[in-house]
Amino acid sequence: MTFVVFAGPTISAADITSVMDTVVLPPVSMGDVYRCGRTRPRAIGIVDGYFDGVPSVWHKEILWAIEQGIAVFGAASMGALRAAELRAFGMRGVGRIFEAFRDGVLEDDDEVAIQHGPAEIGYLPLSEPMVNIRATLDQAVREGAIGRQVAEQLSAMAKASFYPERRWRPLLERALADGLDKEAFKVFEAWLPQGKVDQKRLDALAMFEAMKAFRREETGPRTAGYRLEWTTMWAQALRDIEATEMDLGYGSAIIDELRHDPQRFRVVRRNATARLLAGRAGNQGSDTARDVARASTRFRTERRLFTQAAFDGWLIDNDLDKSGFEQMIEGEARLAATEADTDLRHHMLDELRLGDTYGELAKGARRKRDLLQGLGMPDPAPSHTGLTVLELRRWFFETRLNRRMPADLTDFFEDAGYPDNETFDRAIAREYIFWSRAGTENNSPEE
Question: Closest Cα partner for 367 from 426, 425, 444?
Answer without folding.
Answer: 444
